[in-house]
Every structure is written in structure tokens, then in C-alpha cells.
Design a protein that fits this description.
It is a single chain. By secondary structure, the chain is of the alpha+beta class. It folds into two domains: 35 residues; 78 residues, Immunoglobulins (Immunoglobulin-like), CATH 2.60.40. The strands form two sheets. It has a five-stranded mixed β-sheet, with no helix packed on it. A three-stranded antiparallel β-sheet has the order 1-3-6, with no helix packed on it. It is rod-shaped, with a radius of gyration of 27 Å.
Length: 131
């Protein structure tokens, strides 16, 4: 019988597969340090007009060390989820959502909104007893 693959070739292939697997594992674990951790914010679109004065902000930040909204720290659960909100002033508003990951890198999302809340108190321009 003829040997199709020699002993040396089989060992070389096996070592090559193990080295490739090890390098793949290293690259997978280092990708967050090189490219930054995943950071997703769920809220109203940037540049939109908000009909209410309260805007909920939630999202996911894997491996986040700190999340802050307009400089105020927000709690993060073990899965990396966060949820909070901001109260907007009538008119133009800027809101910053900032993430600092476990490697010390910072990511920032900036939102520009125009708030047009309806008046919270009933208003009557003319009172019957005024002349």
C-alpha cells in the first residue's frame, strides 16, 4: 500500500491548524481593544423635533466601564444594558451620551433636538370679566 500523506506532512498540517486556531482566538479577543467595544444607543433620531419634554435614552455597551448622559453617570447592568432619560428645555437642545470602556477608550454620541412641548397649564387668552 502506498502512503498518500506522509507522517511529516500530517504533523505539519496539524500544527498549522492549531496555530491558525490560536491566532484566530487571539484576534477575536483583541478586536475590542483595537476597534473599540460595541456601543448602541436607542433614542429619537438626531436632528428631530420632540413633542414632549422628556426623552428616554437606552442602549447596550458591552464591556463598558462608565456611561454618562450629559455628564451624569448612568447605571449599567451585568449584560451592558443601560436606561435613563433627559428632560429637554423648550427649543434647541444638545445631549451627549458618553461611554468609557474597560480599555479606557471613549465613544461619544451627540444628539441635537428641538423640543416643542405643549403648555402644561390650560391657558385662556380672554377672561369674561376683563374689559
Amino acid at each position: 500500500m502506498k502512503k498518500i500523506i506522509g507522517k511529516l506532512t500530517l504533523v505539519t498540517i496539524l500544527v498549522g491548524v492549531l496555530v491558525a486556531g490560536f491566532l484566530g482566538l487571539v484576534i477575536y479577543n483583541v478586536k475590542d481593544m483595537v476597534f473599540g467595544t460595541p456601543f448602541t444607543v436607542h433614542t429619537s433620531a438626531d436632528g428631530s423635533t420632540i413633542p414632549d419634554s422628556y426623552v428616554p435614552i437606552s442602549g447596550t455597551a458591552a464591556h463598558a466601564k462608565q456611561i454618562s448622559i450629559n455628564g451624569r453617570t448612568v447605571g449599567i447592568d451585568p449584560q451592558g444594558n443601560f436606561s435613563d432619560g433627559v428632560i429637554l428645555s423648550p427649543g434647541y437642545n444638545i445631549v451627549e451620551v458618553d461611554e468609557i470602556n474597560q480599555f479606557g477608550r471613549e465613544k461619544k454620541d451627540i444628539y441635537h433636538w428641538v423640543a416643542t412641548p405643549s403648555p402644561s397649564v390650560a391657558q385662556n387668552d380672554v377672561t369674561p370679566y376683563q374689559r
